[in-house]
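DM from R.C. (forwarded with permission)

"hey, sorry to bug you on a friday — could you get me a structure for this? deadline for the figure draft is monday and I only need the backbone to look sensible"
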Amino acid sequence: MNKILLTIFTILSFSCSAKEDHPIAENNRVVEGAIPMSRSMLRPELKDKAREKEAYVLSFFKTPDQQLMPLGFFAMVEDIRNVENLRKIRSRGINIIQSYGRVRSFEKALGNLEAARKAGIGVVQYLPGSYMERESPQWWQKRIRLIARDKQLMLWYLPEESQPEDLKDLQMLAGIIRSQDPYSRPLTTFVKSGQKIHWKNISKIVDAMILGIYPCHIKNPAPRADIRRYIDFAYEQNVPLIFSALEAFKSEKRRNVWPTPKEVRFDAYLSLISGSKGLFWYGHTYLIKNPKLYAAVLQLALELNGPTHLGEVFLLGQRADSIECQLIRGSAYAPPACAYQKDWWKKEKYLYSSPQWLALRHKKNIYIFAVNMNEKIGTADHGGPDYAVTVQFKNLPETVKNVEVLFEDRQLAVEDHSFTDSFDPIGTHIYRLEIE
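My reply, with the result:
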């Protein structure tokens, strides 16, 4: 099975060749190729279904002149009814919000929907898990019918972190929603990591899976390459559509650190390069305590759903298969990823190329989204001394004369249909190439 998956990665990924092999590659499972198109890992008979699911879900986020990417905040508590703030974040590209709580009443849910209506923002309707344990199907049917009338509801969110023994209850809830929702809005949920069979069963119920990816929310440092591995793992379980829930909080019980604005931006673009189709940040009630990070997240949302339409590029762009990447300087591989493996230190780890990138053609431009996954983790040395990389993008169309680096106020010269640029550790660059 491992050899089969490795072959799939090798065939379906764009290559980013390195000048030298890395010695740690000998003891790790190497995933060849720099461009991860993770959904290509789905079985052939599931690919059409996945495309249908994506088109269906994204249709709820489309305006007359733009395909918006689902971007939202989780864990809005008292601030979910602050209409002025909801309007502010809506103007910055956020289009959906969620209020978390296992015992949240349906009366409060209606109040939240009313505030969202005034602000013009969508709601992820959370269904509290505590009620699933004690209420009848008739009870659920009555309340779901009541909430389903509200057009501010954009996504249904089944009780999260369910266990295999909850499957029948989740199937019951999904059936009620399908029968009672006059607008047929998509179903989502969040499932704990590592439960392969449960993931596959849940994937048959929902339209999209929300994947929590929190590299700082652990006792020991974790490589941010885990983000790529999380998404790969989900698609290996035949999940048709992935949204990433990214960390925007400080875990006082774990490492007690906030992610930096640079890390938040890297996490978002690596998730999208890896195949995620929407982003949520957990959680708003914590994030507002860190104004600098809050501003960085809103700026990121504006990059994706603002005038540059980068979210639309990710969702509607076509792969620019002719472009290649050559590693000029730096480590060929990022620190090994180990996400979703029990006792991972006893098993093989996943070794990904340091440069991760995706080239997409959309309208009159080609966009190249690129990150450097190389970084220093603990005392390990996987690419020193500075963990930076330099890459060359080759085989550009003949009409490309210069390259604009978005949000950095600089341009790069094109020579022999190529350009070169450098990346800091966990650095992110976005290139726009005019082709017409």
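R.C.: lifesaver. The domain at 2-33+318-434 is CATH 2.60.40.1180 (Immunoglobulin-like).
me: no worries. The chain has two domains: 2-33+318-434, 43-316.
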